[in-house]
Design a protein that fits this description.
159 residues, alpha/beta, Rossmann fold, 2 domains, five-stranded parallel beta sheet, 7 helices, 5 strands
């Protein structure tokens, strides 16, 4: 069943439950899954980006998918602390590890997970600029992503 078919099925089911008096379940059926992807790279995590992700999730009532790109199996302490903040704020989250470049990890994630409202990430130059082109600007690769890309620019905390 396609995306539109599933949405219509949920609408008709919600109508049925509402008519039967189960308004809470009807509302639950109408709520779409709302996920925001936060993509961060090991040792290049800025507090401002984490705060932006929390505020956005609270504003749109979304779950946060954290894509942590690293070469090893350890997780930065700032990310571990961030999990506690998310719990305190009542924000549900998932944690996924990626490897390789941040750019490719985000693109791979977005291909498989089509319920992402937007991607929040820091704006390191290698993620945004296509170095093979002479002029600077957004890489053509990013122009084809199926959701908005939010770049948070700030100084990076180095380990």
């Amino acid at each position: 069943m396609g995306k539109l078919g599933k949405k219509l099925d949920n609408i008709f089911s919600a109508i049925t439950f509402a008519e039967a008096g189960d308004h809470d379940y009807a509302r639950e059926l109408m709520n779409e899954k709302r996920n925001i992807l936060l993509a961060v790279k090991e040792s290049e995590i800025e507090r401002k980006t984490l705060t932006y992700a929390i505020n956005t999730c609270k504003r749109v009532k979304a779950t946060l998918d954290i894509l942590y790109v690293s070469e090893g199996t350890n997780t930065d302490p700032i990310v571990e602390h961030f999990f506690d903040e998310l719990k305190a704020e009542g924000i549900n989250y998932t944690f996924t590890r990626g490897s390789g470049t941040l750019k490719q990890s985000v693109l791979d994630y977005a291909k498989v997970n089509n319920d992402v409202l937007c991607v929040i990430m820091e704006s390191p130059e290698e993620a945004v600029v296509d170095h093979k082109r002479k002029e600077k600007g957004m890489s053509d690769t990013w122009k084809n992503i199926s959701c908005p890309l939010v770049l948070v620019k700030a100084g990076i905390i180095q380990k």
